[in-house]
Amino acid sequence: MAFYDSIKLEKGMYANGKSLTETLEELDPSANYKNTDMDGLDAFQRQLKRYDIKVCGAHSDDVQKFFQTANSAVLFPEYIARAVMQGMKSADVLSDIIAAKTVINGMDYRSVTSSPVGENNSVVAEGAELPQTEIRTNPNLVSLTKRGRVLTASYEALKYQRLDIFTVTLRQIGAYIAREQLSDAVNVLVNGDSGNNAAEVITESGTFSYDSLLKLWAGLAPYELNTIIAPPALIQQIMAFSEMKDANAGLDFHGTGKMLTPLGAKLICAPTLASNKIIGLDKNCALEMIQSGGIVIDSDKLIDRQLGCAAVSCTTGFSKIFTDAAKVLSI
Question: How far apart are CA 46 and CA 28, in angstroms?
């Protein structure tokens, strides 16, 4: 068994398709520290403690603290990846949209599609066959998109910066990636993932009103309308409906900032969605998210203190599960 203070850290720990934290957990399982002063820390946090690196708070260290030894320098890319992930989680709305998340090691992925075969809602007579749901592999590969940013500062420019301030910048990078992934998800919901499964459009020819939302709710049946995605201007109109002012949803918004409609659906703001469109979906069965690996960092540049242009990226794609579980209201 390897103990946290005797593990030799090296660049190769980033080359096995796993994060540094995952590799360290295999070498130094957290379960071994139950009921000790290290209980509650993961393997990466134990390494930060080993080298006395404080990454947050009023007394956080400078960036150069990571480079006090060759061993501790190996921790720097993982610190960046975790800070970016924190930013992605803080801006995350995908969890309110996707039904499942699949992580793969590669760039090729085929999802599955399902469709009913035979008559629906029919009584099955004695001895007759039950209606079928056919599940098959999607003939089209899921399109994966890389989203990220490039860090262009030199080590000399960063070494005296406090880690808590640097973390704020990294979190903003994560928030940017999360917003771009939302844009990709919205595009698939509207236009489909294979060219032949675009969302059905429900047209509202009159004035946009609460009745328009009811039309979307009815059009999505038998699926549940539990999520509504809209551009900022239409969300403003929805929040101004008298039904929102009088309903408990309005009280929830005033008290918590969480936007719920009187229909019980959660409102998601998507600035990239067309200004006259609203997406209604059942988040439990509409969309699958596919992610190739995790946060990818140019680890060699960071460890060698040759930051220059180090890329931070994440590669994801989206696939529809049940096409009819998402519909578009066009105003």
Answer: 10
User: 52, 163 in Cβ contact below 8 A?
Assistant: no
Q: What is the DSSP string of 257-290?
A: ---B-TTSPEEEE-TTS-TTEEEEE-TTTSEEEE
| Domain ranges, residue 14 | 1-50
Q: Which long-range contacts (CB under 8 A, 24 or more apart) does 165-173 make?
A: 166/63, 166/83, 167/55, 167/56, 167/83, 167/86, 170/80, 170/83, 170/84, 170/86, 170/87, 170/312, 171/83, 171/84, 171/86, 171/87, 171/90, 172/87, 173/84, 173/87, 173/148, 173/149, 173/312
Residue 122 lies in a domain: no
Instruction: Tell whether 236 is covered by a domain.
Output: yes
The separation between the first and the last C-alpha atoms of the chain, rounded to the nearest angstrom, is 63
pLDDT digits (tens, 9 = 90+) for 38-89: 899 999 999 999 999 999 888 899 999 999 999 999 999 999 999 999 999 9
* Global pTM value: 0.85
Higher pLDDT, 67 or 122: 67
The answer on 67 and 44 residing in a single domain is no
Segments of 46-143 assigned E as strands: 100-104, 112-117, 132-137
Q: What is the mean pLDDT of residues 28-33?
A: 92
DSSP 96: G
Checking if the pLDDT of 146 tops 80, the result is yes
**Residue 33: other Cβ atoms inside 10 A:** 18
Do both 137 and 16 map to the same domain? no
CATH number at residue 148: 3.90.1690
pLDDT value at residue 115: 67
Q: Which residues of 34-72 are buried (b: 16+ CB within 10 A; e: fewer)?
A: eeeebeebbbbbbbbebbebebeeeebbebebbbeeeeb
Residue 56 lies in a domain: no
